[in-house]
Specification:
single chain, 713 residues, alpha+beta, seven-stranded mixed beta sheet, 22 helices, 24% strand, flat
Length: 713
């Protein structure tokens, strides 16, 4: 706009400037062409025309800007009107009655609910006051409430009784200050609603409570009333009887009451009264002991209601008292019995369970359930079916059928497997019995579930040991007789070989007989080793040195794509064993590891001094606690599944192709270890390799005996 004004000044002033610069004609000269001053006039006309045009543009500019401002104002006015209409619609559809007052408690506006309640038009609301709708005394009280809100600047909540339309109505009202931009209270927003029905309900409840107290009195329940401010206590005749005193001897004495409370409960009673007064809880309910004048101790149950004034101060406490000695003693005895029962069952390693009369709902299960089943007891209480869902699918049909018989016969005993959430399988021996009531009806069922997983595992170890022992005896007997035959064959073949000339074609056949008999003799020695009947030549042996001497041979025997590593215990103890047999063990295990890693891998040998304690012995029935030397051989091969592990030491069992293994390699290892007084365990999973751990009794050297004794002490 400033640029237009500057342009206007230039256009107007320039022609005038040009006219001023025009020289007038000389006085004595003759006129050349009339008129003599037309250029200034022409410039003036052009300037005026340009100014007029510019003025038109300026007016047009301001007019368009004014139009835009008017449109914007109209848009905002419409938006405000729309919002106001929405707000008013919302407020008018509320069931609560809403009033807006100024600082003088004069009505500014009200919603439709209030107008309908009072029977007044909305346009008549402004200028009204509470005096126009309710009695003057009530109106003055509400005006004082308004002044309190204005003075404090805080919201005020009121429950009061008012007269509306000639009817007594209980209302609950909230008065909220409305602040101006400077923070001062400019108006009061009042919202109230009818709570008469709620108050009437409360009154009905109170009447029923009084009726209940009278009924209790008729049932030999004493009543009492305490004037809290004056400390005066009024008792009914039944209360005097319960306390074992005469009315004349006690009177309305508050201190007399506390004097009869058991010394151990006085503080508790005081605390109950103080807590109720402080918390605003108007109901008292507690048990305590009293000591009668004759020294007898009784249990009483107190229940009362605290009555307060408008300021919240306690005015009166009224209640009942009931002699509950028999009930309390029964409860104490029951609680002690239950405590002993829970201590007993929760300290059992077995799972104690109890059902309801439907024989399905679990109402109690001992703490051991969480350790055995791996599930929380709360989950079982919430859904008893989870007990059944944990049973192994292969055992579930048998258990369900047995449960049907349990309902008929009242007895239950089964072994089954369960599946824990972590995937572990455990064996359970479950015994149960039905308990009947006096009428012969089912009252509940109880039982004990015992975790027999370790027993099953030890049984399996024992059966496996028995099986191998039996096979060993059979193999040993056969091998012994077979060895005698082989020696005869070898003797006769050697006799023939000595008699046959070097160039005789039959000599080749006799050589074949000798080679075959030697292979048969080798198999016989392996069977004898498995059956632990071969002759050993034990000596004091250091496994570190033996393995180091075999290391070059082992590296040639395994492929180049298999990494061989060894970890030796520098302070490794000695064992008593046949060196050649231990070498055979190492070679057989190395060959098996090599064959388990067709694509290469890692083979690790480790020696270590270990102590196998009583816990280890309990898990491995053949092991005696003591000091051992461990030799482990771990590979990263294909690993073995559980069925394979169960047969791995059986003679002639092999996972190799036909013609590529006799199945006596690990059997020989097992026999040598056992004949040497040791133990062997295998740990393997498919795809995760295998670990063979051999334990030989550690030899105690004479010079180290004092040191060992000191360590033991």
């Amino acid at each position: 706009m400033q640029r237009l004004f500057f342009f206007y000044v230039i256009l107007t002033a320039f022609p005038l400037f040009c006219a001023g610069m025009q020289s007038p004609p000389p006085r004595n000269s003759l006129p050349v062409a009339p008129p003599a001053y037309w250029p200034p006039f022409l410039g003036l006309c052009i300037g005026l025309a340009a100014g007029l045009i510019l003025l038109v543009f300026v007016v047009q500019y301001y007019r368009s800007r004014l139009n835009r401002l008017e449109q914007l104002a109209a848009s905002r006015t419409a938006e405000l009107s729309k919002r106001e209409a929405l707000y008013r619609t919302l407020v008018d559809n509320l069931q609560q009655n809403i009033i807006l007052k100024d600082r003088e408690s004069t009505f500014i506006s009200a919603n439709a609910s209030f107008c309908k309640l009072m029977g007044v038009a909305r346009e008549d609301i402004p200028g009204k006051t509470d005096f126009d709708f309710i009695p003057a005394e009530m109106a003055e009280k509400h005006r004082s409430y308004d002044r309190q809100v204005i003075t404090s600047g805080e919201t005020l909540k009121i429950i009061d009784k008012v007269v509306l339309n000639d009817q007594i109505t209980w209302v609950e009202e909230v008065k909220t200050p409305v602040r101006s931009q400077d923070g001062s209270v400019a108006a009061i927003l009042c919202i109230f609603w009818d709570i008469t029905e709620r108050i009437q309900t409360q009154q009905e409840l109170q009447n029923k409570q009084e009726l209940l107290e009278l009924t209790q009195k008729a049932a030999h329940i004493g009543s009492w009333r305490l004037d809290y401010a004056n400390r005066k206590l009024a008792w009914s005749d039944e209360t005097y009887r319960i306390f074992g005193i005469d009315r004349e001897a006690c009177g309305e004495n508050y201190d007399r009451f506390f004097a009869m409370i058991h010394p151990g409960d006085v503080q508790q009673v005081h605390q109950k009264l103080e807590d109720s007064a402080r918390s605003g809880n108007n109901i008292l309910c507690f048990d305590h002991r009293i000591v009668r004048p004759n020294g007898e101790t009784r249990w009483v149950h107190e229940r009362g209601e605290i009555l307060k004034n408008d300021r919240g101060d306690i005015v009166e406490i009224a209640g009942i008292v009931h002699d509950v000695t028999d009930q309390k003693e029964a409860e104490i005895a029951l609680k002690e019995s239950e405590t002993r029962f829970r201590q007993l069952v929760n300290n059992l390693h077995d799972v104690f369970w109890m059902t309801g009369d439907d024989l399905e709902t679990i109402i109690f299960v001992s703490k051991a359930y969480e350790a055995v089943w791996g599930r929380s007891r709360q989950s079982l209480y919430g859904d008893s079916k989870s007990f059944v869902e944990a049973i192994h699918p292969e055992d579930l049909p048998r258990i369900l059928n047995s449960y049907k018989n349990f309902i008929k016969t009242g007895k239950f005993q089964e072994e089954y497997r369960i599946l824990r959430p972590d995937g572990e399988i455990r064996w359970i021996l479950d015994r149960g019995a039905v308990i009947y009531n006096e009428d012969g009806q089912i009252d509940r069922a109880v039982g004990i579930a015992k975790d027999i997983t370790e027993n099953k595992r030890l049984e399996e170890q024992f059966h496996q040991s028995q099986k191998i022992e039996a096979i060993g005896k059979l193999a040993g007997g056969v091998a012994h007789d077979f060895n005698n035959l082989i020696m005869s064959i070898q003797g006769y073949a050697q006799f023939l070989l000595d008699k046959i000339p070097e160039d005789d074609p039959m000599r080749h056949d006799v050589d074949g007989i000798l080679r075959a008999s030697e292979r048969a003799a080798s198999l016989t020695r392996q069977l004898l080793a498995f059956s632990r009947k071969q002759v050993l030549q034990p000596e004091s042996l250091n496994l570190n040195k033996l393995i180091q001497d075999l290391e070059k041979l082992l590296r040639r025997m395994i492929r180049e794509d298999i990494e061989l590593s060894a970890k030796f215990d520098e302070n490794l103890g000695k064992i008593k064993a046949d060196p050649s047999q231990i070498e055979q063990i190492v070679m057989n295990l190395a060959v098996n590891a090599r064959d388990a890693m067709p694509r290469g891998g890692k083979l690790t040998l480790e020696t270590k001094n270990v102590y196998l304690d009583a816990n280890y012995s309990r898990d491995h029935v053949e092991v005696m606690p003591g000091d051992y030397v461990m030799l482990s051989m771990t590979d990263t091969g294909c690993g073995m599944d559980k069925p394979t592990l169960e047969q791995i030491f059986d003679p002639f069992f092999t996972t190799k192709e036909v013609g590529k293994g006799t199945g006596l390699g690990l059997s020989t290892v097992y026999g040598i270890v056992k004949q040497s007084g040791g133990h062997i365990w295998v740990y393997s999973e498919p795809g995760r390799g295998s670990a063979f751990k051999l334990y030989f009794p550690r030899e105690i050297e004479e010079e180290k005996q004092p040191e060992a004794d000191a360590a033991a002490s």
